[in-house]
């Protein structure tokens, strides 16, 4: 039959694609009799051989036909289902890293087994991505026997699964799990403090079920882990008390600047909003803390070291940030004031603990806030895999997007039997009330006849409204809202039973097959009870199937499942998904949409809708009169097309913004990984020291002799960047060039660090350094996420000033990232240089933050003419920036972010991505 089908085709792209796959299909078919003769143990030994073949650099396409033939046979033996030719074709497309469009009910679950098996033979794991936990477990249990027959192991991850079992599941050849769980585990893996604790072993190959809903509908919602900060807020109060006793260095009245050898505890730089301590200052600070009994040891003990940071922020809060100028205190909260306009930036917070320091200064409650610990969008998560493939019933309408953004090709696989569903023209009503009335009439009439009907709605709200109306009329029905996937799967499986009326939102009960006459498998399971053994289950299946056969015939006679859409969605794809629930595997069926001029989509016609509505009214058409015309269908399709294109543009645009963050995330996670593996971390510290010295040399002029003034500058530089006090006298260095002095100091520091290493042992030091690096990276990264979010809002307002927001975002995002990396490097170097070795031996215990998974709409949408972010999304975004969507103004962001000159090297590639050197591009 297939052959005939293909011969009649005249060669559009999809048909040509399939023709190209036919020779492989023929090969697989030809191997069927070979596979039939294999003994059970042959499957295991063949699997081992093929694994060895691939480990030996063998070619996967060589073994594909045998592998697929074995899967087909294994499925036949274990499930009693022999994959159809179309399923094999789909499987080949999946193996090729494409999207397989296969209509609902055609058996995507089984189609995906062969490519999963083949790719798992490489021994690097295959992830099978489902839309909910229920399906992850169901599919793993359903297809498990096939994989196991072939000699592969199968596991699944779902929410609430304990960590050890989770790791086990990822170690299996095949791992089923939802997109949420798998991406969440990835983020958490990158928050761990040892390599052994990581769950995932990499991202080799994945098959994403319902790929359209994940990569297109889910495109605006990044996955977010947020959690409370674990900081002890008392430390801010202690620091505020301690700094009271410190004195600013005296200034030279002639120059109004600090002398070369300042006397006092700290210097204040008004312009850059900076504070730096002198050696005396640190000593005074230590005794202040000791006197007020914050701690009894030294400031340079590992566990006390962070007080330098708290004290710095306390001084900045006290001296550089003024109430009613920089911020106001309102309702017990510190709120930032926009410098340029005086407007309050609601909800915005200063970063790096400054906000808490100001709260301590004002004597109000220090907010223990929840913050974003990690985030990623699904697109960027899945783009990490070496090979992605996906399945859906509806991809062709979004083919361009899959191609452009993900480089994914869509292969449209024909149905095993032709679809005979009757898709009827839309009917349209003057207003919503008339529409709902007509819908109720229709449901009542259809269900009286006994034809099962599935009513699709666009929201839970509408489902409930309709449900109330039906209850008033005494029509029995079920309502599904995608709240409880397992229970709803049971209900939706029965949606094809005679007389069923089921109201469901788009996501409810997805992935569950609706069989005409009800679902005998589900019924058998329920009848047999959960503790039934195989034999009892088998008997129950046989009994239920027998009862089901006449019921199935009867429902077919009644016309199959009737799909009633209560509104058209913005995207044709979603409408097609709804329709596709009926007419599976050649079954009869019918679909029809009921619209009104009040519908969301109709309003997208703009003024047209209002005109049309008044025209209809004037023509004497009353609410209850339906209009039905093919022209109308075409007009609707055009409107959907327009909306689809606009949404595509928005997503494309969002992705460009997200790419900036993505590059940085990759860099940070790579760094984290290499730190987890590095046994010579001290080398990194030395490199940071060297960097800092070179920085000085470059700025000062490497060959210039220092002289007294130069030595003072060098001492300042070392103090500021490394908290390192230049040993000896000025005259020791005055005759050196900057470069020579650098070398000398480098040697000094290297010796000091080596002796520390000897003191406590290399391994202990390395462990302490690792912890230090990771802690700094994680905190720095979390601050950075907030800063970038603030930046994204700020640049958008710059578009009014004729600036390109994306470019600004790239440049400035790059710059604040660079600054963060610098800060991390210096922070660790500083600590190692200053801290006493004793303290390093007992590194503070680090707790894995208990994150919460959330979805957040990217707030950019509200600026680009798209839908406004939802309330829930705002709440989810935590402290920073969440409430300030109306607020921020050009140039305004968290105070610590600002830097007037980009710190991109002149010869570095320009961060705008032009490929030119920075000095020839935006640095020109
Ligand atoms: P989809 O995800 O494509 O909507 P499913 O994977 O849920 O479809 O499968 C739909 C139904 O078809 C299931 O009941 C399954 O057992 C059945 N099925 C799939 N493939 C075959 C086959 N080759 N032979 C017999 N039944 C099959």
Automatic annotation (TrEMBL):
Organism per entry: Salinispira pacifica
Reactions catalysed, as given in the entry: ATP + H2O + cellular proteinSide 1 = ADP + phosphate + cellular proteinSide 2
Assembly and interaction partners: Monomer and homodimer. Part of the essential Sec protein translocation apparatus which comprises SecA, SecYEG and auxiliary proteins SecDF. Other proteins may also be involved.
Example GO biological process: protein targeting
Gene: secA
Domain Helicase ATP-binding: 89-248
Sites where the protein binds ATP: 87, 105-109, 513
Protein name per UniProt: Protein translocase subunit SecA
Similarity remark: Belongs to the SecA family.
The SecA family profile domain, residue ranges: 3-628
Domain Helicase C-terminal positions: 435-654
Entry keyword set: ATP-binding, Cell membrane, Cytoplasm, Helicase, Hydrolase, Membrane, Metal-binding, Nucleotide-binding, Protein transport, Translocase, Translocation, Transport, Zinc
HAMAP family with a match to the protein in the record: SecA
EC annotation from Swiss-Prot or TrEMBL: 7.4.2.8
Any matching Pfam family: SecA_DEAD
Region of interest: Disordered: 863-924
Role: Part of the Sec protein translocase complex. Interacts with the SecYEG preprotein conducting channel. Has a central role in coupling the hydrolysis of ATP to the transfer of proteins into and across the cell membrane, serving as an ATP-driven molecular motor driving the stepwise translocation of polypeptide chains across the membrane.
InterPro entries hit by this protein: Helicase_ATP-bd, Helicase_C-like, P-loop_NTPase, SEC_C_motif, SecA, SecA_CS, SecA_DEAD, SecA_motor_DEAD
SUPFAM superfamilies found in the cross-reference section: Helical scaffold and wing domains of SecA, P-loop containing nucleoside triphosphate hydrolases, Pre-protein crosslinking domain of SecA
Required co-factors: Zn(2+)
An annotated GO cellular component: cytosol
